[in-house]
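Supplementary Methods S3. Input chains for the assembly prediction are listed below.
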Amino acid sequence: MSILVDALTRVIIQGITGSMGRQFADRMLAAGTLLVGGVTPGRGGEHVRGLPVFDTVAEARRATGATASFVVVPPLAVEGALTESIGAGIEVAVSYTEHVPAHTALRVVERAAGTATRILGPNSAGLVSPGGANLSDISDENIPRGRVGVVSKSGTLTYEVLDALTRSGLGASTVVCLGGDPVIGTDHAEVMSLFIDDPDTDCILLIGEIGGRSEIHAAGVWQERECTKPLVAYIAGHAAPPGRRMGHAGAIVAGDADSAAAKSRALRELGVRVVDLVTDVGDAARDALRETGA
Amino acid sequence: MRLKEHQAKQLFTAVGIPVPRSRAVLVGGASSDGSLRDRVAGLEYPLVAKAQTFDGGRGKRGGIRLVDSARSLEELVALWATGTRQLPAVSEVLVEEALDIVSEHYLSISVDRERKTLLVLASPHGGVEVEQADPASFLKLNRASETGLSADDLQSLRRHLGIDGALQEECSALTERLWELAVVGDCMLAEINPMVVTEDGRLLAADARVVVDDAAAVRHPEWPVNDEGSVFERAVSSAGAVGTELDGDVAIITSGAGLGMATLDLVSEAGLRPACLIDLGGVVFKGAEALGQVLLTLRQLRPKVVFINVFLQVGPSDDLAEAVIGARSLLPDVEFVLRLRGRNEDRASRLLAADGVAVHRDLEPAVRLLLETPTKGQEEAS
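Predicted C-alpha cells for the full assembly:
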C-alpha cells in the first residue's frame, strides 16, 4: 500500500499531446503506471501511444474512470487545466509546470478548497508510490521500494534523499513533492496526516527548505497525534544568506523564524530527529527504525 | 521583482490611486542641466528629491531631501549620481511636490503563502518606524482573491486607518484600487507607506513599494525590466541559469534549487567558502554549448575550484562533461570537481577521466574529492 496513488489508480495526463506530455506518457507506460488516456482541448478523438485523447477532463473521467491527473501544460494554461480537474472531481492533480504565477495558484487553490480534489504543486516534481504508480519526473530505477514516507518541496533534493535512502538500505512507501513555489495546493502537514495513517509507512522523512513554516506545522501534527513512527527531517539552506532568493521562488529567509537553523531548532523541540546535511538522512532513518524496532 | 518607487507609482496612477505630483529624472549622462530643469518644469519649489533605490530606509541614509531651487536640485542629483558614503549611486531620482502632512497611515496587500489568500494590513500609524510598530496595532484581513473585499471590510479598514470625514469614500476607493492592482497586476506586495492626509484635504500614496511576481511577467508587458543582480548574476541570467554571488572561492553549480541549497550546506559544513551558487535549471537539456556559456560566466568570479553537483533523471550527463572539458582551457587556473548522475553517465565519466577531471557518481565521495583538491590558497596555507 501507499498514500494517494497505487497500482490500481487510473491516471490521465493533461497536455498529453505536447512533447513533454508524450515523454511522460512513455515513461509511465514503461514503468507500469495505469495510464488510461489524456486531455488536450481540441484534440479529442486522437490517440497518443494507443491511448485516447479527450477534449475535456470530464469526458476523460467518464470514459476511463481516471481519478488522478498529471498536468503538464504551459504556465498560463495551468489555471484552466486545474479548474477543469477540480470540476471533474479528479482526486489528485499533480501540477508539474514551472513558472506558474502566484495569483494563478491562489485562485486554483481557492477553487479546490472544500472539493474532492487535492492539488500538488504548482512546480511539483510529482508523486510516486514505487512499484505502483509514478506521476513524477523521477526514474523508477532511482526509487527503491520500502517503508519510508518521503515528503519534500524540491524535486532535485528528493533525488538526493532517495539516493541516501538507497545507500542506507531503505526504500520509500510513497514520495510526495509539494513544489518550490510560494503558493502551493498541499502542504507538508496534510501529507504528514496521510503517512501517519498509512499502515505501510514505518518512518516519515520531512524534507524542507528556508522560507515559510510548512515543515513546523507538519511536525506539530505528528506531535499532536502522538505518532509513534519516527520522524526524520532536513531543512536545506543552512548556508543561505538572508534576504536572497535561493532559486525557488518560495525559498527566501524573510525573518529570523524561517531560516534553516531556526526551523531545525523548532523541529528538534518537537521531538523530530533533525539532520543538518542531506547525505545524513538515510542513516538517520535507518537508525531511527532500529531504535523503535519497526 | 522589486520595483522602484517611481515605477510603483506609475502602476498606482494607472489604476487611479492618487500620488503626489512628481517627475522621474534620469541621472547621469542622459540628463544635462537643461533637461533636468525642463523635466521638473511645472512643479513649484520647494520640492522633495527622492533617490530611487530598491531598499527601504533611504530616508535615514540621506536619500530624501528637500530642495528649494533648481540649483540645489542639480547639485543633489550630481551627488547622488556618484553616490555617498551611506547611499550607493542611483540612476534615477523622483522629484515631488513637498506635502504639508496632517497624518500618516499604513496600508498594504500581499500574498499570504501560509493561509493561501491575500492579506490586507492596515495601521493608523505609517511612516519610517512602521517596522518597529506593535504588531497588535495592525488590522489583518485574509481574503480570497476571487471574493475580494466586502463593504464591511472596507469600512473596518477605513475605521482602523483612522480616515474619516470628507475622505471616507476616497479611502474606500483607494483600498479597492490597491486590491485591483494586487490581483490584476500580479503583485506579491503592494504597499503604501505612508498613506497621507494633507493640509489641503487630499489622501495620497506618498510612498509606494511594489514587488511583482516574475512568473507573471509574460502577461505584463507594462512592467519595467529591473536587473538588481550583480554583473556576474546578470551574466548567469543571460546564459539562461540562475546565479547567486557569494564571497568565497568555491563555485557551486547544481541542477535544481533544492539540490543547490543542500550542496551549499555540504560545502560550507566542510569548511569551504562558496563563491557562488548556480542553478542550471533547464539549461541541462540544452546541450554542451549552452552549458559552456554558463561555465564561462565564472571567468568574472575567478574561483579556485568549481564543484558541480548534477543529478539528472532523464537528462544527458555527457553534454555537461563536454562543456566542462571545453571550458577548462578558458579557465586555466580553476580546478573542477564533479558529481554526475544522468543518462550516458559512463561516457561522461570516461571523457572527464581522460581529461584529468575528478568525478564521482555519489555525493559524499565527491565532497571528499573536493576537499582533497589542491588549490593555490590551500598550498599557501599548508
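Residues 99 and 198 of chain B are 7 Å apart (CA to CA). The longest helix of chain B spans residues 168-184.
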